[in-house]
Specification:
With 339 residues, the protein is α+β, with helices and mostly antiparallel strands. It has one domain: Penicillin V Acylase, Chain A, CATH 3.60.60. It has eleven helices and 15 strands. Strands 1, 4, 5, 6, 7, 8, 9, 10 and 12 form a nine-stranded mixed β-sheet that branches. Strands 11-2-3-13-14-15 form a six-stranded antiparallel β-sheet, with helices on one face. Helix 1 packs parallel to helix 5 and helix 4 crosses helix 5.
């Protein structure tokens, strides 16, 4: 169902309710078979979870209204839904893998490409949404059932692009849950606004935010984790998988899987061969690469992280315009103008 965006508009709570309804009937059977959900259950009612809730509500009240609406739309207890939103803040082996590529071509064109990797059970069970909350630019994003949009890939109608790579941290620190922060980025008008928001709020979990904008020539990689917010300017191109790679992250305690190492190395090796004439075709070829035991494009039932590629996105920023091309395991399924 995911290639054609589902249009949602209204107040923050109404947006949340509609997002919840979209996931109703999909989230419960998924959680019933999910080892991750079973591992999360002991955290239910824990004081630390209450602290994360307080941080989210205080820092991002509008996003919290969406969250409460989502719980209503799902007919799910808010405490249970919060537990699911905080999965990556509580458990370092939490799913949601991904590979992202940023590349700058001739004449100012920029691309952000992304493989969204997650539980194979969810292939074909996610959605694209076009959300217009009324008090923010609104956005188009890939949405998991029962999760705030933003932590996969998306772009808003102010022209801001975000692709997320999960980072598995081994330390916990009270802060705003990472899914709330990723969602909040899509409310930002500019790159500077997004970076300031990420730097301002303490972070409970780890993510890499690959950021671009239709009307800004910069491409930025932001490694956001407890005690760290590292911002790197991308001059030509960069790849990122599921572990921190910035120089300032050397002392951070993180879980690095063999797949994440292999995908990072493979894409960097491919990009070493690119030149100024490289662009969309090369990015897509890299994201659809199947070499090795831990390939970039993941569709094996025996994937070492238990994940598969659920969708591939390619954002193009050219002459102030922004478009999104969507692929399902190599086949283009949608082309969407954003700005």
């Amino acid at each position: 169902m995911w290639p054609k965006p589902v249009s949602i508009s209204g107040t923050r709570r109404r947006v949340g309710i509609e997002l919840g309804k979209l996931g109703r009937g999909r989230l419960e059977p998924y959680l019933d078979q999910s080892p991750l959900w079973a591992a999360l259950r002991p955290w239910c009612g824990h004081a630390y979870l209450d602290e994360l809730a307080g941080r989210a509500q205080s820092a991002l009240p509008a996003i919290w209204q969406e969250f409460e609406g989502m719980a209503e739309g799902l007919r799910m207890a808010p405490t249970d839904l919060l537990l699911w939103q905080c999965r990556g803040d509580l458990l370092h082996p939490a799913a949601d893998g991904c590979t992202s590529i940023a590349w700058r071509g001739r004449d100012g064109v920029r691309w952000i490409g992304h493989n969204e990797d997650g539980d194979a059970y969810l292939h074909g069970k996610c959605a694209m949404v076009d959300v217009r909350p009324g008090d923010a630019p609104g956005y188009v994003a890939f949405a998991y059932p029962g999760s705030l949009p933003g932590h996969a890939f998306g772009a808003n109608h102010a022209g801001l692009v975000q692709a997320i790579d999960s980072v598995r941290m081994r330390s916990r620190r009270p802060g705003v849950p990472r899914l709330f922060l990723a969602r909040a980025v899509l409310d930002c008008e500019t790159l500077d606004d997004a970076v300031q928001m990420l730097q301002t709020h303490p972070r409970a979990g780890g993510l890499h935010h690959l950021l671009g904008a239709a009307n800004d020539p910069r491409l930025l990689g932001v490694e956001s984790a407890p005690g760290l917010c590292s911002v790197a300017s991308i001059e030509r191109g960069a790849a990122h998988t599921n572990h921190l790679v910035h120089s300032g992250a050397a002392t951070m305690r993180q879980a690095v899987t063999d797949s994440s190492r292999a995908r990072q190395r493979r894409v960097e090796n491919l990009m070493d061969q690119w030149d100024a004439d490289s662009g969309a075709q090369q990015i897509l070829a890299a994201l659809q690469d199947t070499e090795g035991d831990a390939p970039v494009l993941r569709h094996s039932a025996n994937d070492p992280d238990g994940e598969n590629t659920l969708a591939t996105a390619l954002f193009e920023m050219r002459d102030g315009g922004l478009s999104l091309h969507l692929y399902d395991r190599g086949k283009e399924v949608a082309s969407l103008p954003i700005v």
